[in-house]
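Why do we care about 3D structure at all? Because function follows from shape, and shape follows, mostly, from sequence. That is the central idea of this module. The next example makes it concrete: a single protein chain, its amino acid sequence, and then its structure expressed as tokens.
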Amino acid sequence: MYSEWRSLHLVIQNDQGNTSVLHSYPENVGREVANAVVRPLGQALITSSVGSESILKTDKEVKWTMEVVCYGLTLPLDGDTVKYCVDVYTDWIMALVLPKDSIPLPVIKEPNLYVQSILKHLQNLFVPRPDPGSSQIRLCLQVLKAVQKLAHESTIMARETWEVLLLFLLQINDTLLAAPTVQGGIAENLAEKLIGVLFEVWLLACTRCFPTPPYWKTAKEMVANWRHHPAVVEQWSKVICALTSRLLRFTYGPSFPPFKIPDEDAGLIPLEMDNECVAQTWFRFLHMLSNPVDLSNPAIISSTPKFQEQFLNVSGMTQELNQYPCLKHLPQIFFRAMRGISCLVDAFLGISRPRSDSAPPTPVNRLSMPQSTATSTTPPHNRRHRAVTVNKVTMKTSTVTTAHASKVQHQPSSTSPLSSPNQTSSEPRPLPAPRRPKVNSILNLFGSWLFDAAFVHCKLHNGINRDSSMTAIATQASVEFRRKGSQMSTDTMASNAMFDASEFPDNYEAGRAEACGTLCRIFCSKKTGEEILPAYLSRFYMLLIQGLQIADFVCHPVLASVILNSPPLFCCDLKGIDVVVPYFISALETILPDRELSKFKIYVNPTELRRASINILLSLLPLPHHFGTIKSEVVLEGKFSNDESSAYDKPVTFLSLKLRLVNILIGALQTETDPNNTQMILGAMLNIVQDSALLEAIGCQMETNGGENNLFKSHSRTNSGISTASGGSTEPTTPDSERPAQALLRDYDTAAGLLIRSIHLVTQRLNSQWRQDMSISLAALELLSGLAKVKVVVDPADRKRAISSVCSYIVYQCSRPAPLHSRDLHSMIVAAFQCLCVWLTEHPDMLDEKDCLKEVLEIVELGISGSKSKNSEQEVKYKGDKEPNPASMRVKDAAEATLTCIMQLLGAFPSPSGPASPCSLVNETTLIKYSRLPTINKHSFRYFVLDNSVILAMLEQPLGNEQNDSFPSVTVLIRGTSGRFAWAQQLCLLPRGAKANQKTFVPEPRPAPKNDVGLKHTVKQRPFPEEVDKIPFVKADLSIPDLHEIVNQELEERHEKLRNGMAQQIVFETSVDQRSEEEWRKKSFPDPVTECKPPPAAQEFQTARLFLSHFGFLSLEALKEPTNSRLPPHLIALDSALPGFFDDLGYLDLLPCRPFDTVFIFYMKAGQKTSQEILKNMESSRIVQPHFLEFLLSLGWSVDVGKHPGWTGHVSTSWSINCCSDEEGPEQDDLIISEDVGASIFNGQKKVLYYADALTEIAFVVPSPVESLTDSLESSVSDQESDSNMDLLPGILKQQPLTLELFPNHTDNLNPSHRLSPTSRSKRMPQGRTIPPMGPETKVYVVWVERYDDIENFPLPDLVSETSTGVETTANSSTSLRSTIPEKEVPVIFIHPLNTGLFRIKLQGATGKFNMVIPLVDGMIVSRRALGFLVRQTVINICRRKRLESDSYNPPHVRRKQKIADIVNKYRNRQLEPEFYTSLFQEVGLKNCNP
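And the structure:
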């Protein structure tokens, strides 16, 4: 930088300005003259009063006196002469500040000229004396303070005086500091003040009289000779940090995170220094120290002239270099220099700052320098330790004296291993500032130093060129420090007990580790889409491979530093980063399964190291499945092997690394004790299991031929491709029988094996180590819930193991002593019951096993009543005899919900009507509308309540549709704690076949008579039998004469008249007989008049009474008030005629039967900052990435808001079953499809994405601007562009909406005129529709960010107002939470797509004990296959945790139960028993016939 300028070094050497005329005389002459002349001057200063003038009046007098004073400054310190000399000169130089009477008049007239001479004379004071004492130090400090005051306060100092002042300071520093340090000497005591004053005055000179290049060059050359003093690096760090703070302020503007430094350090920079001067000074000061990496090489530091002078002893033989104790401080000085550069890098990245949402500062993780056990002192100027000085805390370490402690690096650090004591283990890592400079720019500034420092004392392979830029070159051939081999001659080592051959180079590891960590942070700060020079990348990968060595070249501080600072390394789309994957895996195999980490404890907090390792593991897990059989490139084939003939590292497929990664994961879980780390591992387990299952499900699992399969098998059993030592040296593989518990297991190849192993591991630890810890327990239960949803066929015994372990967990928690019972404990039990429900609903066939069913029901009983009926050895205690004593009402509610799940949901979900509602989609309005009988109205229903918990609405009239009207039928709407269910019931008196063939009962008919059967003869009837004619007459027979014998005419007439009458009578009777015979023939048979017929069947039934009676509800006991109880009777009637009854019934129907959650999804293009820009991204599918639309459709299915009976994202449109959608014609839907409205179609106005299972329902809403949807409906159809992604959407938009409507054309019974129009932005409730309190608002934001750095610009407060769910409107209810959620408590899941096709996750949201939710973990990498599942599962878990945390939340069945009890109290028909029975026999609705 100053190569064309000459140095002033020779000018300084040849300057004779500090010599006096008295130096030419004998020593005793000079001493006597000085004593005689200086004493009156000094005493005059002490005794002088105000206004007393100096005794020197002319220039000649002053100059002669100055010659004497100049000589007096060289005298020994045994008298007062030197002190008087210093007093006089420090008084005189104030002529440039404020002239006083005590100052001679010539000095006042020409102050610059005299002060220049005085400064040159004062150099004599700083020449080391043979016997230095405190007096010289005191006098030197007096001069330095005077010089400080002169520089600060003088306004008339000329440029020449400034230049002399700077040369004076350089000269006195070089005089004292250039030589090797002597313990306790003046140089050691004055070093910090000397260099501090030099830098302070130099900065003032930059402001008022900027030094010319020769002065900068001279300063740089001289400072290089003083670097063996810790104070030099310390003061340089202070100054450069203060300059950097000012530089950043005007370079990047006020929005850039400020680089906070102590106020006293900031005061070093004059306020009047302008921006251009700051920039120029900053760059020159940055290079003032020359190359800081030289500090790692004692050969360079000891090659200065002053060191060379002392290399020669009296006899002329060279001493050994290591005889200088000051060189022992070089490792610590090197570390401090690297720490200073590291702070500068962090400042430029904007990461060493307090986050906006967290009070304490969050520093970057750094290693600690192992502290020496020697006594140390901290100079007063250095005793500063404030919370704000995050970057400087560890730089303010003590100045170590020359007493050397044996085994420095093995002494445990007495301070916190982290760089700030106020960093908590759960704090997130700070993100680099969005406006930070590019990686190339930072490396152009600091890269050469950092890369050189990162390779200090590394032994590289002979084939690798090691140029000057790779590492520091040892200029002394006799001394070459190496990590291996001979550092010095063996004789030298043996002769000097202060050195340890294996110890000394290791001391430089702290500085090297700092450099490596800083480089890792630089590369991890790469912006999305930023290009980094290949030269930098290649050197960085070399550094990683070297630093991650775990074999012969292992360096624990460097390894720890690389791991600590590399968690985001695989999330930054660095080109070629995958080449170091095997080395990272080998390093993780060393760290994570190691429970103690004893080799790392002295450098770093083991918990932090493990957390960083787990973060890296999370980013590596998806790689094997993603890249499959692609082979990783080999960077160095055997370059780190000592044996040239050893086998080189061979390329391996990514898929072959899967077993090692899974093995690390399981080993980490078995050894981890920190709750946060454990939860991260649990989240990763669900990720890898689900990804494996999905990969197998789509048939893409390892398409391997025979050869590759053999390679894979051999890898999993024997070596790891790149050996587990990762050093390139192949190690003998251990047989399976001798491997530790964390050894590679072959059954991890399949998703089923991985799932089984995960279940076994988690269940075992859940009931042992984890059951006391709430956060781990909740995460483990969430993991088990997620594993239950993985679609993999496993043995029922393994599934039963999961259920049994959860049951055992509940038993243990319930049985803990009463003092331990707390809300948190009960939250753990509630979460366990929820996990149990998930397993049962996902695997309902598990309850087919008797043992499993018994165990689950016993747990339910335990939760509800507080104890089991049957214990191991006790007698059975029946439920009716037990006194209910549950652990808490929350536990009882959870157990009741589990019982409801078992009894009502298992095997019955989803119902034929779909998953959007577990209830019947029928209510009174539906039955009235679709009944064929016009007389039915809402007063046609009878309302009864059973056991104060079930409302029965009975419609006795047949509906007139598919039911058989001649049979008794009743339609019952059952409103219970679990929902509304409609049963249409008929009294079935006949088998189904008979019922189908005949309508009414008809008795068996008689046979019809047959008159034409047999022969019919005409026979004249005789009054007597024929045998009478054969009997002979006797006289008596003849005694009665015949009629004709006695007939006369008169009798004849009478006789004829009688005969005619008889003939007529015969004719008449014959006709009557014929007529009656004809009539008889015409008659039906049998005669209806005389026939005995059965009574006709009843046509009118009071079916409500029959139903209640048949079910045994109509007993006298059921109607009586229970004694000693406030509860109503078991059966009561409700009076539906009371005002408000149907409103309360509708209110009850609006209470959801499942928890409901809302997810708002946003798309953030690169560089966007405002909410309107973000919302407008949804208006077209052409401006978003195709993967985003694919992700949307993986979350849920499309439903029509107008017809959807489930949750829609807003209470005003949810849970409606009688919606009117007639006004929406099909042509409108066609228009929506043809117009590219993008994802805004799912904004909740017309459509929404929806997901539901038996236990929860989620609405995924994609908010859009107010006008987006309506504009698209009113505008003309635009032509599709060829690159549109819209082809992903029509398939789901054109399909029939998955609504649960049984009847497609309803009218809403709740004021349909108030349905929302598509243009309404803020949805309001229809009039008359009361919204029940819904508990805490559970909404989650999912943000797709194209550029990761835009996360900090996400306008969360603006978007919170755009995402109302209507739940906040119930804030005035006593059972709801506060009206709105603070912005910082809204959970946000950021998804950033990487170039590899994987996705990076960033979580942000509420803090607290319920904060960390799995399976998604901050910093995780997720595959495209598993993204939708993991996001959905995380949302479910976040909302469950929020409900667990809420004090006011009640489960759905409890809220419904409370509302039913409220309805009973308000509308109970208080009748006497006779009146109740009478009402059953009366027609319903007689008084209120009008609807």
